[in-house]
Known about the structure:
A: alpha/beta, B: alpha/beta, 2 domains, 23% strand, binds adenosine-5'-triphosphate, binds magnesium ion
Amino acid sequence: MTTIDYNAEPLLHVEGLKQHFKISRTYTTKAVDGISFDIYQGETYGLVGESGSGKSTTGRAIIRLYDPTDGKIIFDGHDISGKLSKEDEAYLRQNMQMIFQDPMACLNPRKKVKEIIAQGLQIHHLYSSQEELDEKVNRILDKVGLSREHATRYPQQFSGGQRQRIGIARALVMNPKLVIADEAISALDVSIQAQVVNLMKDLQDELGTTYLFIAHDLSMVKYISDRIGVMHLGHIVETGTTEEIFSNPIHPYTRSLLSAIPHPNPIVEKSRVSLEYNKEKEGVDYTKGTVHNLTKTHYVLATDEEFEKWSKIAAEHPDVF
Amino acid sequence: MSLQKRNKDERVLSIRDLNISFETSSGMVKAIRGVRMDLYRGETIAIVGESGSGKSVTVKTIMGIMASNGRIDSGTINYTFTNENGERETVDLTKMTQKEIRYRFNGKHIAMVFQDPMTSLDPTMTIGRQIMEPILLHENVSKEEAQARALKLLEEVGIENPEKRFKQYPHQLSGGMRQRVVIAIALSCNPDMLICDEPTTALDVTIQAKILELIQKLQKEHNIAVIYITHDLGVVAKVADYVDVMYAGRIIEKGDVNEIFYDPRHPYTWGLLASMPDTDTDSKRLFAIPGTPPNLLERIEGDAFAPRNPYALAIDYKAEPPMYNVGGKHRVASWLCDPRAPKVNPPEQLMERMKKMRTESAKYDND
Ligand SMILES: Nc1ncnc2c1ncn2[C@@H]1O[C@H](COP(=O)(O)OP(=O)(O)OP(=O)(O)O)[C@@H](O)[C@H]1O
Ligand SMILES: Nc1ncnc2c1ncn2[C@@H]1O[C@H](COP(=O)(O)OP(=O)(O)OP(=O)(O)O)[C@@H](O)[C@H]1O
Ligand SMILES: [Mg+2]
Ligand SMILES: [Mg+2]
């Protein structure tokens, strides 16, 4: 196990990131509305939250598929928030990879799988001979649980989970420093999920790979993450170590989310009810909240009154499951 | 739970001996090998199993969807419905073209939520139009009424500001919102059979719960039969009456949901249940079934799972196991269920988990 040095400079520093989309003259979606977080070398940061809360947008803004509306992104000492210099762009494309949520939308249907996986290596000249290239492609196919016979097929000739693994292989073959994994394993059966997660952990141990792990499956997030950020409506409403989030959740959104985790136990699951959270009903306005620290690592976005109220509720009802 | 005796007249779907293969540059892929399945009104079947085991291909065939390099080698898919004259009618869907199936059944009778939401949405059309279209097509309603119904559906699937979202295009929505739009379209015409392929994988657990409950509510009201394909065993536990477990193109174990979760018999099912992390998992590595799935390009001798099965018997490599009736609704295709086979227990880890599950569930048992 590599140990994470939380006193070093973070590998990724995000500060006040905003990503707004102008839909019409009068309507703008504030998909990400001022979030800040750090990810340290060798760490896995889990990002969870409501559907539409801005998780994918965060990932896509960091890897610069968008021009961020505001905020700062520092990746391994390179400022990648403004207009990218040629060198910074090249550094970014080689060292940061994203596994996309919608695999079909990002795989060229006219290319064979082996061509898709080899493409990044070719662009950045990361091999010395054709044999080495083939070897790298075959090895990664093997590691994500696809066979060599699959290499000459086209993406549409695969099952959903096999396709997702093509996307995973394409990202991991580059040996990137940071991998943004957006729902990277959700279409896989649990055994192959385990295989891919074990692979990700092995790479982390061997090479110190860092992950931003976006997912809805909280038991997997809990298993894989060192720290977790919880997003709701464009804001990170709570963040902390995995232990802190699961054993002492404070924000009502975090609590309702944890209480809704389905249990793979039919009799329990058919009679269980989860906690409700309605932001409007509670009169919560995220732009009014400030950061309230419980520990050095654990903080909640809240006004002073909210923080007091929520802490009290959490202390009285520690068990959300 | 609707675990009463199944009534033959209520059967909507009956698949028998389905075999499907695909032609590829390296040879024929035998993707489906003798699938049999029955579905009755008002009940829910969950299909689980290995990635690539044939779940999506099976249900797409019900809708008449087949890749150009694929073909049905044999088998029947009998679908029973109430026709325009109010009579029960049965047709074999394998004998119909995709066009015919689409024209006669799509939306109104059979609706499907596909695994990849982007592929079933038209990127050039606003989502509002896409939800209204089937309503206008199948139901004799005005444009205003169709719009009102579409808006209500969007709200029901948990999309806030439906009026604003109505005018947006698919790429302007998040992954989970798209998935919910697809679900709204599927529910728009009150189908009598609903097929959901990974309907909630892109959704957070709170919205997932909401959607599953919405489908359950509509299912009760309209007596809909539902097929779920999902990798999320928590979802299976929540919604399923029956579970079919697939491996390498076959159903290798089936039963009611309690039989599968509390008393699994096939070693593949054991591996599957053991791989899932629960929120108490803290071991350093997750358990993954060792080895790789069989190459479907080659003829499979014996039990397809044998090479990965630590409990494999000599016969597993030679002959395909029959479906054993192990009591109740429970059927298992494994030689381990033969009376002559040695008695083996599931792996330690799984036994422990099952023990824990039983204790937990005992708290709820009295209702
Ligand atoms: N290209 C775009 N144009 C306009 N709006 C967009 C665009 N991309 C995302 N949005 C909006 O931004 C918000 C956040 O979307 P995002 O995809 O980041 O959510 P998410 O947290 O990843 O959700 P999910 O869990 O459903 O994938 C949504 O309201 C979405 O409609
Ligand atoms: N057009 C095609 N050409 C060749 N092989 C195909 C084609 N479509 C599917 N297959 C193969 O058929 C098998 C079954 O695919 P299917 O999509 O049904 O899997 P699945 O059980 O739905 O898996 P997942 O859980 O990953 O979605 C897979 O091995 C797949 O590679
Ligand atoms: Mg997303
Ligand atoms: Mg599938």
